[in-house]
From TrEMBL:
Domain HIT: residue ranges: 5-112
Transmembrane segments: none
Organism, scientific name: Capillibacterium thermochitinicola
InterPro entries: Histidine_triad_HIT (IPR001310), HIT-like (IPR011146), HIT-like_sf (IPR036265)
Active site: H98 (tele-amp-histidine intermediate)
Top-rank taxon, per record: Bacteria
One GO MF term: catalytic activity
Chain positions of motif Histidine triad motif: 96-100
Name under which the protein is recorded: Histidine triad nucleotide-binding protein
Length: 112
């Protein structure tokens, strides 16, 4: 799946407002935000979803994802939400593992 939109962003073939980059993770602003602050965090390596069998064998990736959340949201004093969608029925539109970081307004619960 090296032609997926997120893989192309990782390779800098498609522009993105990159906020953080590590060895394994890229974070950038969502182009269709649902909150004032809407950041996408993706692994640079193509992993299809949270259910991908290669994910549990990547402890460094998991650590970098959570470290990136901490770095990016350190000043989000009003709180934030982390969302992972899996599959079309859950709203996933790109089959590449990605986390949504949402903040900047009150986030209703339950969502929707």
């Amino acid at each position: 799946m090296s032609d997926c939109v997120f893989c192309r962003i990782v390779r800098k073939e498609i522009p993105a407002q990159i906020l953080l980059e590590t060895e394994e993770v890229l974070a950038f602003k969502d182009i269709n935000p649902v909150a004032p602050r809407h950041i996408l965090l993706i692994p640079k390596k193509h992993i299809s979803s949270v259910m991908d069998p290669q994910l549990p064998t990547s402890p460094q990736l998991t650590a970098e994802l959570f470290s990136a959340i901490q770095q990016l949201m350190a000043e989000a004093k009003d709180g934030f939400r982390v969302v992972i969608n899996r599959g079309a029925h859950a709203g996933e539109s790109v089959p590449h593992l990605h986390l949504h970081l949402l903040s900047g307004r009150e986030l209703a619960w339950p969502p929707g």
